[in-house]
């Protein structure tokens, strides 16, 4: 269960870091947005290493599902855009897939 906390925190920092570049390059904000963006992206990378997984590729694949739900939440909370029903359906499939990837090796071992 702790893996989901690490995934969620990593996703927040990755999205925030990318958002800083978005604000600078797409919204015409100051280039100073890059400084916190780079700090945030560094924290993202460090947090993702906290995940309990034997292989980085499996951790990153499982992370993808959590990243998607966090992105849709970001859309709603930070950008104040109401997600569509299809967004939430897609999120559900992704989280199920991420859970299968993360827990799959344990199921196969039993």
TrEMBL record:
<keyword id="KW-0812">Transmembrane</keyword>
<dbReference type="GO" id="GO:0005886">
    <property type="term" value="C:plasma membrane"/>
</dbReference>
<dbReference type="InterPro" id="IPR037185">
    <property type="entry name" value="EmrE-like"/>
</dbReference>
<comment type="similarity">
    <text>Belongs to the UPF0060 family.</text>
</comment>
<keyword id="KW-1003">Cell membrane</keyword>
<feature type="transmembrane region" description="Helical">
    <location>
        <begin position="31"/>
        <end position="48"/>
    </location>
</feature>
<protein>
    <submittedName>
        <fullName>Small multidrug resistance family-3 protein</fullName>
    </submittedName>
</protein>
<keyword id="KW-1133">Transmembrane helix</keyword>
<dbReference type="InterPro" id="IPR003844">
    <property type="entry name" value="UPF0060"/>
</dbReference>
<feature type="transmembrane region" description="Helical">
    <location>
        <begin position="89"/>
        <end position="108"/>
    </location>
</feature>
<keyword id="KW-0472">Membrane</keyword>
<feature type="transmembrane region" description="Helical">
    <location>
        <begin position="60"/>
        <end position="77"/>
    </location>
</feature>
<dbReference type="Pfam" id="PF02694">
    <property type="entry name" value="UPF0060"/>
</dbReference>
<feature type="transmembrane region" description="Helical">
    <location>
        <begin position="6"/>
        <end position="24"/>
    </location>
</feature>
